[in-house]
Design a protein that fits this description.
There is one protein chain. By secondary structure, the chain is mostly helical. Helices cover 54% and strands 4% of the residues. It is built from twelve helices and two strands. The protein has helices at 6-17, 22-29, 33-42, 49-64, 69-76, 80-89, 97-104, 114-128, 137-143, 153-163, 204-214, 224-234; strands at 178-182, 199-203. It has a two-stranded antiparallel sheet with strand order 1-2. The longest helix has 16 residues, at 49-64.
Length: 235
């Protein structure tokens, strides 16, 4: 016990008699838990049963209310072993994972009638109706139709890929992932979105190199002049 002076030993004894656990004393004094326990044993201090009983009661109350063991650990600042021992000493049966989930969601692990399922669906929809995410720009684009043939953008692009024989029109590579690139951005030039002279089939790697590398941002609008400058730079 050479690492503790007499004053520290007396302070440990005082705190322990006041009801503080060895873990709390270790936090207060900035010492190791093992050091505090040895100091308590060396001074022959009686076991602080009151602290253990009070803590066990608190753990049992929280566990009975449905709180999980990891949450109890965070709430009471204890390790999982201490919480588990407190539950066992209180004579409470340990819940399984499915039982723990059932506390928060009564529908888990149970069979319901069709009517009950409909009612549960209504409850969930009512709960999350305000959290519905607004339609994205990409989703809006996917719903637009070709002014002449009525095809969606994806369907129109598939036709272009087939006409290009699934080959990158710049590198001539086949068997690679392909994208249809708009020379003038759809966002800034929506009137050119369907024009054949504004569309080019290129490899996905080349597409990313242009938007991420040359333009610096995939959301940044581009023009046919940007594309020409990109190709000139690659030569």
């Amino acid at each position: 016990m050479a690492w503790l002076n007499q004053g520290e030993k007396e302070e440990i004894a005082t705190l322990y008699r006041q009801g503080f656990s060895t873990h709390k004393i270790a936090l207060i004094l900035g010492k190791g838990v093992t050091t505090i326990k040895r100091a308590v044993q060396k001074q022959c201090l009686p076991k602080n049963d009151y602290v253990y009983r009070e803590l066990d009661i608190k753990i049992a109350e929280l566990y009975t209310e449905g709180m999980s063991m990891p949450v109890i650990c965070k709430t009471l600042e204890l390790n999982i072993k201490r919480v588990l021992n407190g539950i066992k000493r209180s004579g409470i049966a340990i819940r399984s994972i499915s039982q723990q989930f059932a506390i928060y969601n009564p529908s888990i692990g149970r069979k319901h009638t069709t009517e009950t399922k409909i009612n549960l669906s209504k409850i969930v929809h009512e709960r999350y109706k305000d959290r519905i995410v607004a339609e994205s720009y990409r989703e809006k684009r996917g719903k637009r139709l070709h002014p002449k043939n009525g095809l969606t953008e994806n369907a129109w692009h598939r036709i272009l890929l087939k006409e290009a024989d699934f080959t990158c029109q710049i590198s001539g590579l086949r068997g690679v992932k392909l994208n249809v690139h708009h020379l003038d951005s759809v966002k800034d030039s929506p009137d050119k979105a369907w024009e054949l002279n504004n569309l080019i089939v290129i490899s996905q790697e080349l597409h990313k190199e242009f938007h991420y590398g040359f333009m610096g941002n995939p959301r940044k609008p581009c023009t046919s002049d940007d594309w020409k400058a990109f190709l000139a730079q690659r030569k």
